[in-house]
Known about the structure:
alpha/beta, Rossmann fold, 6 helices
Amino acid sequence: MGKKYLFPFEKEKKKYPWKTFLSFLCAGYVFILILCLSIIKTAEEENNFSTTTFFKSSPDLIVVPTGDFGRIPRAIELAKKYSLSNIFITGVYKKNSVDMILPESNFDQIDLNQFEIDYWARNTIENAISTLKFLSDKSDINRVLIVSSDYHIKRIQMIFNNLQVENEKKYQFYYHGVENKYFNSDNLIKLHKEAIKLIRGWLIMKLWTPEID
């Protein structure tokens, strides 16, 4: 058997940078998919937890961050279920009034005086800040039910958990997610976008804490 010689100046193997880039994209998308599954799972768990908690009792306040269909009608349903008279809606466009954002079919069953509206918040972090500001003026409120879309629950929960650290008084937050069908392409896109927003929100919470006072 002949000797095998190694040549120090042997031509290097050809590299394919696009393969590295493609692998990076695939890994990134797998991570996004895992986040999407985690988002749905969190919403299911929080729905079950809030339902169990308020089986024979009721929250002191229902909070609705605006942003998608179905949130306010679900909040009204839950308010009736728990015989609750207080709903705080945050993130309403400044030109809208209460009757403009509520379902017309419920007008005859709704006391418009039970709603408090925040026009300042423009995003989820500001929704949370507005809610904490509102709660700071209400000494009789402790247990708060947040009603939002199911894909939104994990992010708003994370934000409230972070802001509670900065807040002297600790409130008990519970979450109810309005379920979406993810066989629908539009809802799938929303879910994927939410995964990206969750990453961005986590970074913001770690690098910068908004002033609550």
